[in-house]
Amino acid sequence: MKKNNLMKKNIFKIATVLLLLSATNGLAQNIEKQRREANSEMRRGNELYQQGHYAEAEIAYKKAMATYPGNPKSMYNTANSILQQKRYKEAIAQYDFLIKNAKNNRLKAQSYHNIGNAYMELKNYQKAVDAYKNSLRKNPKDEETRYNLALAQKLLKNQQNNQNKNDKNKENKENKDKKNNQNKDKNKEKNKDKKDNKEKDKDNKDKKDKDQNKDKKKDKDKDKDKDKPDDKKDSSDNKQNNKEKQQPQPGKLSPQQIQQLLNALNNEEKKTQDKVNAKKVKGQAVKTEKDW
User: Fold this and answer.
1) Is 28 contained in some domain?
2) Residue 148 near residue 132 (C-beta atoms within 8 A)
């Protein structure tokens, strides 16, 4: 009885082992199949990449990544195809992901090198220098990376010099504009003062002329008042004088009577003169015309 139980246990163990071996073999076969499909897509992507069809190559590499996940080579090739399409920031992100997950230093060095190339295209020379340095740390013998590093350093220096020059020019321009604005403000204030003084002088002159005219008018009115008799008094005196002239006074002849006397005397004098003249005419010899 014990022997039969032992045999049953052994048979169960053997069956379990055989089942595991079968499953492992099936899994291995499935993984191998996926790897072969991924390699096929990789080869297709490489052919398209070599032909310059980078967009189609990207699709093939991504199929390889989906078919056989975790393959760093397909990740690297995908980033390269994105870089060739000038999607630099996207390529940099792909390389960064690869660097964090890959174990191969050579692949990391190549990824840093390509990051440097992407930053060169973006004219971010400082980050390009940093990327090339990281690449050389992983692979110090890479002369191409060393050359690119020297070029990036030179371009960075020129960029900094130009930036400093631009900053200085900008500062000079700002100072010049500030000085010009200050001068404009001063001139504006000066012109305002001149205008205010001119208006003030004009107001003073107008006031002075007005006062002078007023004084002249007062003097003129004063002179008129001197020459002009008092209306009320003169009017009263004139009325009185006229009344006195019109009304004859006792013992005095009126003006009308005096004029009548003068006229009478003139008439008498004329009559007397006419008589004298008549007598002179009678006493003279009469001349006649001589007959021939």
Assistant:
1) yes
2) yes
Distance CA 79, CA 66 (A): 15
Whether the CB-CB separation of 81 and 51 falls below 8 Å is answered with no
Ordered alpha helix ranges (H), the chain: 2-50, 54-67, 72-84, 88-101, 105-121, 125-138, 143-227, 231-246, 255-282
Total domains present in the chain: 1
Distance CA 277, CA 50 (A): 166
Q: Which amino acid is at 280?
A: K
What pTM does this model have? 0.54
pLDDT tens for 91-119 read 999 999 999 998 899 999 999 999 999 99
Q: Where residue 31 falls among pLDDT bands split at 50, 70, 90?
A: confident
Residue 257 lies in a domain: no
Q: Alpha carbon of 4 to those of 1, 9, 10: distances in Å? A: 5, 9, 10
Which positions ≥6 away from 65 have C-beta within 8 Å?
38, 71, 74, 75, 78
**Of residues 54, 57, 122, 139, the one with CA closest to residue 88:** 122
Residue 228 host element (H or E): none
Higher pLDDT, 69 or 217: 69
Question: Which of 115, 122, 121, 123 is CA-nearest to residue 145?
Answer: 115
Range of the domain at 67: 1-85
Cα separation, 190 vs 106, whole angstroms: 75
Whichever domain contains 22, its CATH number is 1.25.40
Average pLDDT over residues 180-206: 80
CA separation, residue 121 to residues 64, 71, 127, 248 (Å):
28, 28, 11, 136
Please enumerate in sequence order all residues whose Cβ is within 8 A of that of 177, keeping only pairs 6 or more positions apart, or say none: none
Widest CA span in the chain:
235
